[in-house]
């Protein structure tokens, strides 16, 4: 069985293959890891499927399904990230039995040291995240072994756990005890309200990353880049019998929205 | 002995620890790899030293030395990246005997598949790089097994190899046969002129990445981010006896310019 489900939302964009290649090269080093990749697209990308097969990581590749029930969302409401996370949570509750679940963005950084700690999550675990908006660090505040607050504090309720989206994990068992609990598009702060509904409190969250003194997760962002354009290949002359058509195909095919 | 020297220029900036952690998690999977990290700083960063030790990658961590001879550079001329690459080349010529040398930026992506191919470099090897400026792909053009040009072509000479900085490797032996050859600050296109001085021609470059049909290297860029500020920690109250001082110290100490 798997001890860690890593959920990664993705969407077709120029650096996607680069970001996913790099992330897969970290995840492949973690034992008993299962990767749930959820794509904001109606059909799967051939390149992403190849990348997943090649990575040898156990995985499920989900794509956006129009017929997927979007809880509490007004008609026509567009909330791609929430949609993808709901889809992942639904899949995990239906298919998994043990282990823990964490969210990892494709262009973020996770130190390998964290995964082994996260696997030990009994209910809800929390750790610091670096380079977050607005103040650069998101973390529980620990004093004499107890959680006394959050930095920065919640804007909704002083009793909440306003963890960053990449700063917490929940156990599969806890999710299965609350099968209706997910991310709602009506939520002001979806992560925080999700954790609240699962019963997270200052006195029951488990602290990771050396008792929250180390940064093992960073919210880096890959700069937006342009798609290579086939027109540039054609400009220079006839490249029909060269490596260029294959190269452009490998980069572009099925990776555009 | 080592079969691959990876040179990475770095400088103090907010996502540095994140970028280097992620890159180290790729490089640690490559056998017989030696990492030459060259820092645009006068003294080494404690955090970077810890990261390197922890990665278990064999390495040398060089910092900018004021007394380092800056070939052909007018006095006061500032060319940090060239300076760092010259420093790395000088160190390799003095210390290494075999293997090949490639440049990898800290926020780029290299597919693990490439390293084993690069290790086989006899003289000069070249491969495609994705997400490059201005057209998104930099590659030799191959027709019927022969190099017939470059995409995009060189602006200096149609016989040159205008490879991207991350699109080539040279053997240590070739470098030692040309001990005076390095990057010059007077060069219009330093990589291209470096390869030219080492004797790279269409008919002697070795082609990697499945005969230049696959993208195994991408020039991704991590978005610029702000430093976390200690003032934010102090705003909320007295955190002297919490985890916050250690956390801020771990992120900031020795990583500011």
TrEMBL record, chains A, B:
<keyword id="KW-0472">Membrane</keyword>
<keyword id="KW-0333">Golgi apparatus</keyword>
<keyword id="KW-0464">Manganese</keyword>
<keyword id="KW-0808">Transferase</keyword>
<keyword id="KW-1133">Transmembrane helix</keyword>
<comment type="pathway">
    <text>Protein modification; protein glycosylation.</text>
</comment>
<keyword id="KW-0479">Metal-binding</keyword>
<keyword id="KW-0735">Signal-anchor</keyword>
<keyword id="KW-0325">Glycoprotein</keyword>
<dbReference type="InterPro" id="IPR005027">
    <property type="entry name" value="Glyco_trans_43"/>
</dbReference>
<protein>
    <recommendedName>
        <fullName>Galactosylgalactosylxylosylprotein 3-beta-glucuronosyltransferase</fullName>
        <ecNumber>2.4.1.135</ecNumber>
    </recommendedName>
</protein>
<comment type="similarity">
    <text>Belongs to the glycosyltransferase 43 family.</text>
</comment>
<keyword id="KW-0812">Transmembrane</keyword>
<dbReference type="InterPro" id="IPR029044">
    <property type="entry name" value="Nucleotide-diphossugar_trans"/>
</dbReference>
<dbReference type="Pfam" id="PF03360">
    <property type="entry name" value="Glyco_transf_43"/>
</dbReference>
């Amino acid at each position: 069985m798997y001890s860690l489900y890593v959920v990664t939302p993705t969407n077709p964009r120029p650096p996607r293959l680069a970001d996913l290649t790099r992330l897969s090269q970290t995840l492949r080093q973690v034992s008993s890891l299962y990767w749930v990749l959820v794509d904001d697209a109606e059909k799967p990308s051939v390149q992403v499927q190849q990348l997943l097969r090649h990575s040898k990581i156990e995985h499920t590749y989900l794509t956006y399904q129009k017929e997927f029930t979007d809880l509490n969302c007004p008609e026509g409401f567009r909330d791609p990230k929430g949609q993808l996370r709901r889809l992942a949570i639904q899949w995990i509750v239906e298919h998994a039995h043990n282990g823990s679940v964490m969210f990892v963005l494709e262009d973020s950084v996770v130190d390998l040291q964290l995964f082994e700690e996260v696997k030990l999550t009994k209910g809800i675990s929390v750790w610091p995240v670096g380079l977050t908006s607005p103040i650069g660090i998101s973390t529980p505040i620990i004093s004499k072994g107890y959680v006394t607050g959050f930095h920065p504090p919640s804007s909704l309720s002083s009793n909440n756990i306003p963890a960053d989206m990449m700063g917490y994990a929940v156990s599969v068992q806890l999710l299965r005890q609350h099968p209706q609990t997910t991310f709602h598009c009506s939520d002001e702060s979806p992560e925080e309200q999700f954790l609240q509904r699962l019963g997270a409190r200052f006195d029951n969250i488990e602290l990771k990353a050396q008792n929250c003194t180390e940064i093992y997760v960073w919210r880096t962002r890959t700069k937006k880049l342009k798609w290579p354009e086939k027109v540039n290949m054609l400009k220079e002359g006839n490249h029909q019998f060269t490596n260029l058509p294959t190269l452009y195909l490998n980069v572009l095919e099925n990776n555009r929205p």
